[in-house]
Design brief:
With 718 residues, this protein is an alpha/beta fold. It contains 26 helices and 25 strands. Strands 16, 17, 18, 19, 20, 21, 22 and 24 form an 8-stranded mixed sheet that branches. A 5-stranded parallel sheet has the order 3-2-4-5-6, covered by helices on one side. Strand 19 and strand 20 form a beta hairpin. Helix 5 runs antiparallel to helix 6. The longest helix has 26 residues. 44% of the residues are buried. InterPro entries: CHAT_dom. It comes from Polysphondylium violaceum.
């Protein structure tokens, strides 16, 4: 199917207990309870351990280059009862297996005499103990793996020569850093540690104010940016320029007045209720909560039987979340800015937006435009000017790990989903976030496999939208607008039908064409398959999930819904990229969006792939931009009547050329000036028009989740 970018990638296999599925998950964010403390210790070691054989041989600027462009990250968890089978079938080299006291014996016996490195948090003869790892022992370990590979493969002999020369030439410069310590700065401290910096940390004291947290992050971010050599920003193959993240909790837990919290509140006095609400449920800033209270009310939350387990769970979740972000930041050598918790406290606004999107209100569009504008401004105020300026200027490729629709944050009048290349991984459930962030390495897939597309369709025979998508696709095929594409439409009406269709399919992309819905903040979302509301969670246990999933159905990742969305279910099952929907979508708009994606693959890609491989994120970003242009032009022509058909076509062609042929970073500004020229509106009227009518466009209902930047498409033989 796909192959990872380099053979020098180290596969890290972390062996977890057999009963992981039956185990409790943490209360707020949903991490399996086995992660703490031993498995967390392994993740922490992995932040500084090589992810690629080359990592340890490079220093300085060359080290930064290898991390920002190469060094794929592959950390997989595997249940102990499957390890023997896995190791007997396994071709993966180089492989390092990690265990704890819970799994060390099983792993040791499964490895037997095989030349596989086994590292454990448990003391066991013949097994490397985590605490014995230091720079020299790791260098010896990696060199040993390279030596063994060099005996079998010529390319590794060459690799070994280059690597050892690099190592001999390396000059050790010491970078000394004074930093502010807090979980919001920890990932960036880890990045600098991996570079070899000596760090002196002063902890940030708890305070109601966030200014220290922000200056702490800005200082480290500037240092990391300064260490990234110029040629990184010129490379289309670099990973991300920045990571933005915000830990969150299950949606329904943000409602402090919910039945769940009321039940607990009845057992707490007022100071404890305040602590629960402001310290745990709706904590703002960076969780740097200080409680003002009278002396007579003072209490230690760790001594309270209700608060203690909640507080311990939340602290473990934050440690885990921060460590995963650190792992990814080190792997990409990029700054990681944590957003304040406040961005997660606007569920009321998202519910209002959700209601409007489902309403029959004649003025829904104007109202939605106002609501979207308000929401965008709120988020910007929460984040603050200093962070905004730092995160969004001079960057292009973003990885966001958060649960709110960060896609909608406007930067210079344009939502970031159109302005930048953006990947987003949801931060709940924690287990899914961890898996998607650590086990989807950069991989190359063949263009011809992308041309093989499966559409899984499920509608009643009399459903008026049943043939919307298939009719357009067939019309395009007849007009020869989809050359080289092999598109198969399969009708299903049961879960088993989906499983069979997926297992028979060998291409890269599956499109689901059906109805969808969701159960609000507490229940799962579903796809309507036959008469069934189908949850797609755990589908990987029965079916092969391709890297790319497109959900042409309503509310598959609802902006106001729970974490258990259809899109998250496909991420849990192993997809790299899932295109979902924030709300009900108009079926004809969805059909046009999907067909344009297919046309982009058929017509645009063969031209650009002659130059280089493209990431799936680049491909989709271009489509989102073109779709935005179309939404705006439709509005100008059909609703506002300020341009005619001829002007529409003229602007459309030029805008698409800016986006595709020129890959123009300022395409939006140029598009706006094309509109100004044609409409001849004065500046004030034009700004008003944009503010009142285009804060929301239909394409903003689509969302791409996962790691699309790690799916590269190349023409065979490249």
């Amino acid at each position: 199917m796909g192959r990872t970018m380099t053979t020098s990638m180290i596969s890290h296999l972390v062996i977890v207990p057999d009963d992981t599925r039956a185990r409790r998950t943490t209360f707020f964010q949903g991490f399996s309870d086995f992660w703490y403390p031993d498995y967390l210790a392994i993740l922490k070691v992995l932040t500084q351990f090589p992810h690629d054989l080359g990592d340890i041989y490079f220093t300085g600027g060359e080290y930064v280059l290898t991390k920002a462009i190469g060094s794929p990250l592959q950390i997989q968890t595997l249940r102990a009862d499957l390890v023997e089978q896995y190791l007997s079938d396994c071709e993966t080299r180089p492989l390092i297996v990690w265990s704890t006291a819970l799994t060390v014996d099983v792993v040791k016996s499964a490895i037997g005499q095989k030349p596989i490195t086994h590292i454990s948090t448990a003391q066991q003869e013949g097994v490397i103990h985590v605490d014995s790892l230091n720079h020299d022992s790791v260098l010896a370990l990696i060199s040993g793996i390279v030596d063994a590979l060099a005996e079998e493969h010529d390319e590794f002999r060459e690799f070994k020569k280059v690597a050892e020369r690099k190592r001999a030439e390396a000059t050790q410069e010491t970078l000394t850093v004074n930093a502010k310590g807090h979980n919001c700065t920890e990932p960036m401290l880890d990045v600098l540690l991996s570079y070899g910096a000596q760090i002196d940390v002063t902890p940030i004291k708890p305070a109601g104010d966030t200014s220290e947290h922000i200056t702490g992050m800005l200082e480290l971010g500037a240092l990391i940016d300064g260490l990234r050599p110029e040629q990184i920003s010129a490379s289309p193959f670099r990973k991300n320029d920045v990571i933005i993240h915000c830990p969150s909790v299950y949606t329904y837990l943000y409602r402090a007045d919910s039945a769940h919290w009321q039940r607990l509140n009845r057992q707490l006095n007022k100071p404890k209720r305040n602590f629960l609400r402001r310290g745990l449920i709706r904590s703002s800033g960076y969780g740097n909560y200080t409680l003002q209270m009278d002396e007579k009310d003072l209490f230690n939350p760790y001594e309270d039987p209700i608060l203690r387990p909640l507080l311990c769970d939340r602290q473990i979740e934050l440690k885990l979340f921060t460590t995963i972000i650190a792992l990814v930041a080190v792997n990409q050598f990029s700054p990681a800015f944590r957003l304040p918790n406040d961005v997660m406290l606007h569920h009321d606004k998202l519910r209002d937006i959700g209601k409007l999107l489902c309403s029959n209100d004649r003025k829904w569009r104007e109202k939605l435009n106002t609501k979207m504008r308000e929401y965008g401004q709120l988020l910007k105020t929460d984040i603050g000017d200093a962070l905004l300026a730092n995160i969004f200027s001079e960057r292009e490729k973003f990885l966001a790990v958060c649960d709110f629709p960060v896609e909608w944050v406007p930067v210079d009048e344009l939502p970031i989903m159109f302005r930048y290349e953006l990947s987003r991984v949801p931060s709940t459930p924690g287990n899914v976030a961890l898996d998607v962030l650590t086990s989807r390495p950069k991989s190359i897939f063949r263009y011809k496999d992308l041309c093989n597309v499966l559409i899984i369709r499920s509608f009643a025979d009399n459903d008026p939208i049943k043939n919307h998508l298939s009719d357009i696709v067939q019309a395009r095929e007849q007009a020869q607008r989809l050359p080289g594409m092999h598109i198969q439409i399969v009708d299903v009406n049961t879960r088993q039908g989906i499983v069979d269709a997926l297992n028979a399919f060998t291409g890269l992309m599956v499109i689901f064409d059906c109805h969808g819905g969701h159960g609000g903040e507490t229940e799962s979302a579903w796809l309507t398959i036959g008469n069934e509301k189908l949850s797609v969670w755990h589908l990987y246990q029965e079916a092969k999930i391709p890297p790319i999933i497109v959900l042409a159905a309503c509310s598959t990742h609802p902006a106001e819904g729970s974490h258990a969305s259809v899109a998250n279910g496909f991420l849990e099952s192993g997809a790299f990229s899932v295109i979902g929907t924030f709300a009900p979508v108009d079926s004809s708009h969805a059909a046009v969006f999907v067909t344009r994606l297919l046309e982009r693959i058929a017509i645009y890609l063969p031209l650009v792939l002659k130059r280089r491989a493209y990431s799936w994120r680049e491909i989709v970003t271009g489509l989102l931009r073109m779709s935005y242009v179309r939404d705006v032009l439709d509005g100008l022509r059909d609703r506002l009547g300020v341009i005619n058909q001829q002007q529409y076509e003229k602007i459309h062609i030029q805008a698409n050329r800016l986006i595709n042929t020129h890959e123009d970073k300022n395409w939006f500004e140029h598009f706006r000036s094309l509109v100004s020229e044609e409409t001849e509106l004065d500046k004030a009227t034009e700004t008003k028009l944009w503010n009142e009518h285009f804060q929301f466009v239909e394409t903003m209902l689509f969302v791409q989740l996962g790691r699309p930047e790690n799916v590269f498409i190349a023409i065979e033989g490249e």
